[in-house]
Structure formats: structure tokens, C-alpha cells
Model the fold of this input.
Amino acid sequence: MATTSIETPTTAVVPKGAQIPAPVLRLLQGLMPDVYKLLPPDITSEQFRAACWLEITGRPSLHDSVIESLRDSIIYAATYGLMPGRDCHFLPFKQKRYGGRKGAQCVTNYFGILRVLDRSGKVRRAFAHPVQDGDEWTFDMFQDRPLHRMAVTLGKKPGKDLFYYGAIMFKDGTCAFEVLSLDELDKIEKQAPGHDSGPWLDNKTMMRRKTCLKRVAKYVQLTLAERQLLDDDDARLLEDIPPARHQRNLTDLFDASNPTAYVPVPSVLQPALDPASADVVDPQTGEVKPSTAQNGPEATVTGEVAPPATRPAARSPRREPTPAAPEAADTPPQGESPPPPQLSSEDLFAQEEREAAEQGG
Done:
């Protein structure tokens, strides 16, 4: 009886070290023994090492990044207690600091912001959601909290997004809210260096929710390190933007051909003066002369008429100051005698001697 042998397919086992380039592997092997010192108590070194491995192996675009940028991203995530893949992502961007080459950046996601707010110990609950067509939404600025019933919970099909909002409930039960329109979110999206690629295209809803959550997180009194995490994420949106695209973004946002040009605003207190009709002040004599626009064009030496905008202002001969007229003596009114003349001390002494001589003679 013939026997047939069945060949079982063999699967080649790829070593873990072969899944990433050798420089990246050496970086992980040399960095992980000491990175646990930066982790918070709720993250173990084994969890962080496994999360970094999955993030790097699952994103092949990081393999061509500058090694120093990948090292900085790992240290940044460990310092702020962010788990790669869950609370943040390592994303490659072309950066000026590396000469236009790709550099990895640790980008905090929506759940990373929630993690920071939870560790502050001042927030009971925080979230951000869109309000879609078909939802029931009631909001009063003087009320403590809005009322939001999603269309799915009402048995309706969700429609298009209308706006987004972020909400935070503190430990004492008070709440804080921020509402952002779609236009405001589009402006924030255009400021991001990777708005034409990456998460703004792959998962725009979560990026909008993260933006609203960051906006309402300003109401929380965070520590300096926790606030620095949010500030770093805001600063990342403004760096490494090419000047041409930055100019195009400003044009799209403000609908102007040259949005950075200065446009003078006329004063509401004084009427605008026409430079052609303004008076001319001679800097040497201080004489105020009327504008040439009022006197008409003047002929030059060659007989040609110089245009008003290009010909120099005509100088008038210097005038000597007119001598002041002598003041007229005060005349007394009719019927009154003029006051006696004022005499000096010598005249008074001579008058007294004459009067004494007349009395004695």
C-alpha cells in the first residue's frame, strides 16, 4: 500500500531585529535600560518598551528619519508619561533643523490630552464631540452645562457636522465649555505643517475633537510641566511651514491678495488732507506758503512747465521783519485834566528849593 506524504508549508520566522534598521535597533537597545527613570508610576518599563517597538515597526516611514529625532521623541513621550500608539504617535516630518530631512516628532493625540487632564487631579471628566445634523442640542451660557442628545440615540441617521464643542467637569461639579465652528477649525487645520497629509486627512474628526479639548483645557490650572505639553503641541503647528504655503494659507483665511501688507486707517478725529493742497512750510524762515497746486503750474528756465508732483517748491525772497509802530500816548477823556507828569528825585529836590526861596523872599 502506497503512502503519500503531505508536505506542510513552513513559515519563515523573521527575527525582531530584522524588522527595523540596525541604527534604530541599536538606539532602542541603548536607550531602554535608562528610559524607565522618566516614566510615571502608572506605566511600567515593559509596557513602554513594547509600545515603542510596535510604534516603530508599524510605521516604516520612521526608518528613514534622523536617529536623533527618534531618540528625542522617545524621551519626550517618557517624560510626559505618554504611551506610544495610545496617547501619542511618532510621525515623520521634513524639518529645517535637519536640513530638510525627515525627523520624527512625538505628537500627542486626543487620548493623550485626556491623560494629562486626568493626572492633574482636578478634572472629573473631559471630552469633545461634534454636533451633527439630527442631534438635539440646547445650550445656555448662564446654565452650568448644555443638553446634547445624539441622533444615533434618538433612532436617527447622523447628518453632517455642524460644529464641535469641548467640555470639562471639575472635581467640585462645575463645568467649562468651548464651542468651535467649522470655519474656526479649518483655520487651525491650515496652520498645521501636515494639514495636507497625516492625521488631518486620515482622521479629521479626532483631530477636531483634540483641538476643542485643548481649547477648553485652558480653564484647568495645570502644573508647569503639564501646561508645557500643551504649549509644545501648539508651537509644533507653527514651525516648519514653507513661506509660500504660509502666504497661501493667509490668503485663503483672510481672502486678500496681500494679507501682510499694512493698510493705513484714516483718523476719525481729523479729516484726511490732500498732499497736493497742503501748505508748504519753509524749513529756514518758517514762512508758510500756499501749495503750488493752488497757484497753478510754474514755468522753468527753459520755458517748460514742470509737473506739480516733480518740481521743487518755489522759494520766496526773505522778508525783513516790519518795525513795530510806536505806541500812541493815552489821551484822557474830555472834561478831565491830564495826570501830572512823573518827576525824578532831582527835579523834586530842585522844586522844593524854589518854593522855599519864594516863601523866604
